[in-house]
Specification:
This protein is mostly helical and 297 residues long. The protein folds into two domains: 3-87, DNA polymerase, domain 1, CATH 1.10.150; 112-287, Orthogonal Bundle (hpI Integrase, Chain A), CATH 1.10.443. The chain has 13 helices and three strands, in the order H-H-H-H-H-H-H-E-E-E-H-H-H-H-H-H. The protein has helices at 3-17, 22-39, 49-61, 66-87, 112-119, 126-141, 145-150, 179-192, 216-229, 238-253, 256-263, 268-271, 273-289; strands at 156-157, 162-166, 172-176. A three-stranded antiparallel β-sheet has the order 1-2-3. A hairpin with a 5-residue loop joins strand 2 and strand 3. Helix 2 crosses helix 4 (66-87). It is elongated, with a radius of gyration of 23 Å.
């Protein structure tokens, strides 16, 4: 069999048997294409552990972060496991290969003052009310960009103050929605009815003026626009609101498990990066407030 036959077979397996999302399928397809390009083999049977190590080193030399390389190796490992199970391959060349470690970088966050400044939009136009609603929801509930794009009206319970979102791996979770976000969404939903909505986007909570479900790119653009308009001296992107939500809730509650649940992290080690941010916050307070920490002038 040619390599592209194995690749198609695996993608079909992920699509129809595993039921992975469209974005996940795109990611796996890209990773398998990279596998062929980096190892310079036309046959998967010819790829050795040494080939995989060289490919990993090449990605590292190109500046790819250790976590990204680890994700790609994981995709390759799963692919070869599939070939062993379904196509009588003998060995998995990725089995004992690990990604190089990259220095940990803490996620950037905005201060509470910056967040308040960003989302204090005084604009009663259709798009102004919509943007204020999704900004408030982003920060109120710590959603991922893809989760926000895919939210439907039925997922929102304004009476109870909760929203049901579908995260990575098609896992659903319920997240609290703050009062400010509830008010903002009530205002937006009241305006939303004036738009002629495309049939395919009828359920979407956030839609464009053309009546279609808002895209991730549109949200990114609008957030950047509002950051400039509101005078935020920082490059603001959607995930920055999620990072800020996590950091601020952790600073207030010290409840790592609760933050993990709200963010939808499968592993608490993913959430623990925010404890470093919290420590920085406490260290700054200590430096300013503790009499033995003050530097002599």
């Amino acid at each position: 069999m040619e390599h592209n036959h194995f690749q198609k077979s695996y993608i079909d397996y992920l699509t129809f048997e595993k039921g992975l999302s469209h974005n996940s399928i795109k990611s796996y397809t890209h990773d398998l294409t990279q596998l062929i390009a980096l190892t310079e083999h036309n046959r998967f049977e010819s790829i050795t552990t040494q080939d995989i190590r060289r490919a990993s080193a090449k990605l590292n030399s190109q500046g790819l972060h250790g976590k990204s390389i680890a994700r790609m190796l994981s995709a390759w490992r799963g692919f070869f496991n599939y070939l062993i199970e379904r196509h009588q391959f003998k060995e998995n060349p990725v089995k004992d290969v690990h990604a190089p470690k990259s220095p940990k970088t803490l996620p950037q966050t905005l201060s509470i003052e910056q967040i308040v400044k960003l989302i204090s939009i005084d604009d009663s136009t259709l798009l102004g009310l919509r943007d204020k609603a999704f900004l408030e929801l982003f920060y109120s509930s710590g959603l991922r960009l893809s989760e926000l794009v895919n939210v439907n009206i039925k997922d929102l319970d304004l009476q109870e103050g909760v929203i049901t979102v579908t995260g990575k791996g098609n896992k659903t979770r319920m997240v609290p929605v703050g009062q400010k976000a509830i008010y903002a969404m009530q205002s937006w939903i009241a305006k939303r009815v004036a738009i002629k909505i495309d049939e395919k986007s009828a359920d979407a909570l956030f839609i464009s003026k053309q009546g279609k479900r808002i895209t991730a790119r549109a949200i990114q653009y609008r957030i950047q626009m509002w950051a400039i308009r509101q005078g935020i001296d920082s490059t603001v992107h959607p995930h920055l609101l999620r990072h800020s939500f996590a950091s601020h809730v952790l600073q207030s509650s010290q409840d790592l498990r609760a933050v993990q649940e709200m963010l939808g992290h499968a592993n608490i080690t993913t959430t623990q990066v925010y404890t470093h941010l919290d420590f920085q916050h406490l260290a700054n307070i200590y430096d300013k407030a503790h009499p033995r920490a003050k530097k002599k002038s």
